Amino acid sequence: MPTLAKDLNETVNPRVAAISPSGIRSFDAHVSKIPGIVKLTIGEPDLNVPEHVKQAAVQSIVENDSHYTSNRGKIELRKAISGYLERTRGVHYDPETEIVATVGATEALAATIFSLINEGDKVIIPTPAFSLYFPLVSLAGGTPVQVDVSEDDFVLTPELLENVLKKEGPAVKAVLLNYPVNPTGREYPREVLEGLAKVIADHHLYVFADEIYSDLVYGVEHTSMATLLPDRTIFISGLSKSHAMTGYRMGYFAGPKEAIDNITKLHSFLVTSITDSTQAAAIEAYTNGDEDPVKARAIYQKRRDYVLKSLNDMGIETVPPQGAFYIFAKIPASYGTDDMQFALDLAKEAQVGVTPGNAFGAGGAGWVRLSYAASDEDLHTAMERMKPFIEKVNAKN
């Protein structure tokens, strides 16, 4: 086993050295060592990829579809995405110049941020938020401005955004919005988005809109920022959540041609193009798979209702999710805001894994995230194990 030469030990990029590994993944890896643990830590759908989508990928392989495609992805795929967005979001993107297929939404986010954020730029991120956003902005040389929205019903309001912009000054370049929100499941009402759009336009900012969960909403309408601010929005999404295709790594970004051309340069240097069979599966999903997330949504909503009721019956305060497949739950008062200790105790004593809220930034302190994308069996087992643990904790107060 080789050991790095001592004279190379200090050669790592200091920006990389300064960031910590994902708090979500690190905690998951830690508790995964506990025998018999039921994990509600990762946003990993237990559902299978729809059969017609799988068969499209299989057919692609059988037919030796194994060559480089355009950096932007096959034109058939980009046309399928364009059609899907027009049907579901009411916004038109030119498949030739305004849509690019990526290795998951993660790569779309990285390419976007690295291309558009300069040294010293600030990016406003409402927290709690997916932990990937903070290091990406830092690696680009920018500053992630965490805005705690836990006191505003876990939504960034136009008034709060205006106040933050006055404080942070002209260095702010963009607002990063993810909704339905990971980790809270909160959806942004249209009137709030319209207010945010006005503030963003008045201050000449970009919007990086991560709407990866937008096909999984419950009883509410999803309004895309792309419909309100098409000239300022970089729209990011994919199939990982809506079609249970996390392992296929299918994402994309879309937006005004001038910005997309520059992001595409970086994308092409990072990955050249995405896998052929993944593109074939995505063409099928975006062409004939509109009903797939509808079926998945019904399953997730049933699970959400069960877990939400179970937690509330235990006396646990929750943020009622309107989308995605997470529940954000407040930890017992005896722990204060030490969500890490609570999550560790729950894992060790009850063999249930949840993610500490601190992994999602300043707004997550004192909360934990539970994923109800797990199987019905695992969810029932987790709730049965949590109940006596919570009763014991509360009895000590």
Keywords:
alpha/beta; 15% strand; PyrdxlP-dep_Trfase_major; Aspartate Aminotransferase, domain 1; 14 helices; seven-stranded mixed sheet; Aspartate Aminotransferase, domain 2; 2 domains; globular; 43% helix; 397 residues; Aminotransferase
Please tell me about this protein's structure.
This protein has about 400 residues and is of the alpha/beta class. It folds into two domains: about 5-50 and about 290-395, Aspartate Aminotransferase, domain 1 (Alpha-Beta Complex); about 50-290, Aspartate Aminotransferase, domain 2 (3-Layer(aba) Sandwich), CATH 3.40.640.10. About 45% of the residues lie in helices and about 15% in strands. It contains 14 helices and 13 strands. The strands form three sheets. The protein has a seven-stranded mixed β-sheet with strand order 2-8-7-6-5-3-4, sandwiched between helices. Strands 9-10-13-12 form a four-stranded antiparallel β-sheet. Helix 3 runs antiparallel to helix 11. The longest helix has 22 residues, at about 290-315. The mean pLDDT is about 95.
Q: In CATH, what is the homologous superfamily of the largest domain?
A: Type I PLP-dependent aspartate aminotransferase-like (Major domain)
CATH topology (fold) name of the largest domain: Aspartate Aminotransferase, domain 2
- Nearest-integer average pLDDT: 96
User: How many DSSP H or I helices?
Assistant: 14
What fraction of the residues are assigned to beta strands by DSSP?
A: 5-15%
CATH-defined architecture of the largest domain? 3-Layer(aba) Sandwich
The total of beta strands comes to 13
Approximate shape: globular
SSE order: HHEHHEHEHEHEHEHEEHHHEEHEEEH
Largest sheet properties = 7 strands, mixed
- The separation of the N and C termini measures 52 Å
Question: Helix fraction?
Answer: 40-55%
Tell me the structural class.
alpha/beta
**According to CATH, what is the class of the largest domain?**
Alpha Beta
Main sheet: strand order: 2-8-7-6-5-3-4
Report Rg.
21 Å
Low-confidence stretches: none
Number of domains: 2
